[in-house]
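Good morning,

Attaching, inline, the backbone tokens for the sequence recovery test we're adding to the shared suite. The designed sequence is right after.
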């Protein structure tokens, strides 16, 4: 029994709300393999508790009085590289906190998110976070990518999928791509309400246009579409030529909605032009079988390498079944993509 207890994931809960702490602590304590070792009510208390309790994972409220969750992360993670799962209302601050080094986030319960669903999701995220590699973010500037211009002719489609750690990894890729990149579709596992804000963030920081996809949107050069949360996003051929996205309700695929597999399989089935598939950091296998289907149809496929992944799950699963043409770090994926685009027959 003592040996089993030592193998449990030790969690510190940080939240200034008594009610929120109780919901989180009760929910996590009921999950097999997880042990809540304590709680903290503010940033200073959290720093002391980390030293005393040495947790494996910390849950952190983004909006705390005094020193906010974001401010705490910026000062905390360089000293204590601990996996942090954010607990956030629908707020842009969550992306700043992810940029500061948090592993993942869960949306707080409200009229759209039940307490039961919140607790279930948080428990799963804590387990994922316990396996993540954590590093304080290093300041870096993206090297501007030269425009493709006439170097690429014809219609080309790019699909990209990511999960845990993917919000920042995808940004690292996107900000290194030119504004005239071939049409892209991005699936990032994310709670309802956040995909629109994430697309807006990418749009501000990247050279191409980025927006949340809507059912029927045309896929075109210079545009990246982010799949909406809680809808399956697939690529379809348009009646008058070209391609569009379908964003509709549906069953979960590979455990997710939106699912990377749903996107990649639709590309393998429906796309008749040159296509590229990119699979990035994340827990599980979502995207692996779809990427293999794309590769079998002639796609050039890229997997994020283990060293640069927060969680080397999805890329590993894809690599292990032969779905990945080449592996690269998130900073080198744009170079791998652009080199192949420019080397295609007919490129100049």
């Amino acid at each position: 029994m003592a040996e089993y207890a030592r193998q449990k994931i030790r969690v510190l809960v940080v939240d200034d709300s008594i009610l929120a702490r109780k919901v989180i602590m009760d929910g996590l304590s009921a999950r097999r393999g997880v042990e809540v070792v304590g709680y903290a009510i503010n940033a200073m208390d959290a720093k002391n508790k980390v030293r005393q309790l040495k947790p494996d994972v910390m849950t952190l409220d983004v909006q705390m009085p005094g020193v906010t969750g974001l401010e705490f992360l910026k000062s905390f993670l360089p000293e204590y590289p601990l996996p942090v799962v954010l607990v956030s209302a629908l707020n842009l601050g969550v992306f700043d906190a992810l940029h500061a080094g948090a592993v993942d986030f869960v949306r707080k319960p409200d009229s759209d998110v039940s307490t039961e669903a919140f607790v279930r999701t948080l428990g799963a995220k804590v387990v994922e976070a316990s396996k993540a590699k954590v590093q304080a973010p290093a300041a870096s500037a993206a090297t501007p990518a030269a425009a493709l211009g006439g170097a690429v002719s014809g219609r080309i489609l790019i699909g990209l999928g990511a999960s845990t750690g993917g919000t920042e990894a995808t940004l690292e890729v996107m900000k290194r791509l030119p504004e005239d990149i071939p049409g892209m579709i991005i699936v990032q596992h994310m709670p309802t309400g956040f995909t629109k804000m994430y697309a807006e963030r990418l749009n501000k920081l990247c050279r191409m246009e980025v927006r949340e996809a809507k059912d029927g949107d045309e896929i075109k050069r210079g545009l990246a579409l982010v799949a909406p949360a809680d809808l399956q996003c697939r690529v379809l051929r348009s009646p008058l030529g070209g391609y569009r996205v379908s964003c509709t309700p549906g069953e979960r695929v590979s455990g997710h909605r939106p699912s990377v597999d749903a996107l990649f399989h639709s590309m393998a089935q429906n796309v008749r032009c040159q296509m590229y598939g990119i699979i990035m950091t994340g827990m599980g296998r979502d995207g692996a079988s779809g990427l293999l289907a794309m590769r079998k149809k002639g796609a050039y496929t890229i997997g994020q390498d283990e060293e640069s992944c927060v969680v080397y799950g999805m890329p590993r699963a894809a690599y292990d079944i032969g779905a990945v043409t080449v592996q690269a770090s998130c900073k080198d994926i744009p170079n791998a993509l652009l080199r192949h685009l420019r080397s295609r027959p007919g490129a100049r």
